[in-house]
Amino acid sequence: MRSVRSRAALGATVVVAVALIGAGLAVLLVLRANLTDQAGLQAEVVAREVAGQLALDVPYDRLEMHDEEEHPVQVTDEDGRVVAVSEDLEAVSGTGTDRGAPVPSPAAGGSTGSGDDDRHDDDDRAPGRGEVGSGDPDFGNGTATVDGDTADYRFASVRATTSAGVTLTVHAGAPLAAEQEAVGSVRGAMLTGLPVLLLVVAGATWLVTRRALRPVEGIRREMAAITASEDLSRRVPEPGSRDEIARLARTTNETLTALEASVDRQRRFVADASHELRSPIASLRTQLEVGAAHPELLDVPGAVADTVRLQALAADLLLLARLDAGERPGRRTLDPGALVREEVSQRTGDRIPVAVSVPDSGVSEVVGSRGQLARVIGNLLDNAERHAHSAVTVSVRGGRGGVVIAVTDDGAGVPPQERERIFERFVRLDDARSRDEGGAGLGLAIARDVAVRHGGRLTVSGVREGGARFELWLPTAG
After folding, report:
1. Tens-digit pLDDT profile for residues 350-372
2. Rounded distance, CA 288 to CA 307, Å?
3. What is the dihedral of CA 177, 178, 181, 185, to 10 degrees?
4. For the chain, how far is it from start to end, CA to CA, in angstroms?
5. Per-residue H/E/C for 108-119
6. DSSP 410-424
7. Distance between CA atoms of residues 46 and 175, nearest Å
8. Residue 146, Cβ neighbours under 10 Å: how many?
9. Of the N and C termini of the chain, which has fewer Cβ atoms inside 10 Å?
């Protein structure tokens, strides 16, 4: 059962089978109960008719019992002796005694001998009146043999009291053949139709599931083809329906789009990193080869500068790799004002002195990695030093539910259409600028990545007097 279609068809078949069996049993029980109640009602009617005659002191041998083959009757006294039975009744069960022939009872209200005739021959004497039991009759199932044929019956027992105070019990039966035949017919029809219905359910479920899962198979085949070809530009087919499968296809295509963009960024990153590393390595190699051949021509300061640049670039690439791998920042509580003062105090070789504006109090603390946040401030100051004409300012203030660290320069500024592009990796707006002066284009990208991973944001805007203003917003601790 590795196929979803097979499991769905089997599950639906089992559920329908259990439901049909339960419903069928309920129907059979209700049908049998109704038919049994009807037979009991017929038996009660016959029993009350005979009991009414006994209450009027009708002799046993003159009791009128209609449909004796359909409704056998047995009359017993208080001692359980049979005093009267219907014609051709040979044996009976389920009434308390199985005798099919009457036993004379001198204590009965009537007799089977000549005494009854003498009583009815009395001069103009009105017959006595007894009473028929008014309570609910007793019911039970049993068998009766009438004229050699034995069948099942539903018996109703009704009590009657003669005028002489003799209590008799009338047991009248109604045949259960109709009930048994109806129940058997319904049961046979269910047993015949159930397998056919289950086959229909299984087949319909198989076909419906197959049709419903056909787009899934198309998605699977296309994904297998994409995996084999490594062509992330391909997309899986999206069905026109608006069901779960269509949403699955759209989500799969969105995932492929994000994966393709990620792979493209990774390829560009590798290509740009290789390009950036090639220049200082080639320059350093050239200087070392010249120095090896002509020691007097070795440019030691240039070699040191290329080595420093190479080291900085390697550090930037390593940090980006850690950020892309999902490295989480630390959870230390930091004073942003003290962090800014410390970072500025360590910058002894800046071309333009940095003006610091940090209030003595009122600035909330932030949570994060001290090294990474110091790296962001340093990158922003490096960018400002690179483009400023005569002034670089860094300030710290509270605002908008967090802390804002702003770095401002009086340089040429950033065109509005390029203000998001400068945060991309290896992007340098001034392509004519030398690499030594412009850097590799990773500083601002690293700064934004670190800001986002700290729950903050980094934006750039223009200054009215000219220049650029970078604002780092960080949420306050807690």
Report:
1. 889 999 998 877 788 899 999 89
2. 12
3. -170
4. 54
5. CCCCCCHHHHHH
6. -SS---GGGTTGGGS
7. 12
8. 23
9. C
d(CA 471, CA 461): 8
Rounded Cα distance between 66 and 38, Å, is 18
Structural class in CATH, domain 244-324: mainly alpha
Please give, one letter per residue, the 3-state secondary structure of 134-161.
Answer: CCCCEEEEEEEEECCEEEEEEEEEEEEE
Contact indicator for 322, 329 with CB cutoff of 8 Å: no
Identity of the residue numbered 81? R
Which run of H or E residues covers position 332?
A: strand 332-334
The 10s digit of each residue's pLDDT in 66-79 is: 666 688 999 998 88
Q: What is the pLDDT of residues 424-461, one digit of tens each?
A: 887 776 543 344 455 667 889 889 999 999 999 999 99
In CATH, which superfamily holds the domain spanning 332-475? Histidine kinase-like ATPase, C-terminal domain (3.30.565.10)
> What integer pLDDT is reported at residue 1 of this predicted model?
56
Would you tell me how many other CB atoms lie within 10 Å of the CB of residue 420?
A: 12
Q: Reduced to 3 states, what is the DSSP secondary structure of residue 321?
A: helix
- Whether the CB-CB separation of 174 and 42 falls below 8 Å is answered with yes
Is the Cβ–Cβ distance between 455 and 328 less than 8 Å?
no
Q: Which of 424, 105, 77 is nearest to 269 (CA)?
A: 424
Return the number of other C-beta atoms located less than 10 Å from residue 76's C-beta: 23
Cβ 397 vs Cβ 407: under 8 Å? no
Q: What pTM, to 2 d.p., does this model score?
A: 0.52
Which of 120, 114, 84 minimizes the C-alpha distance to 99?
A: 84
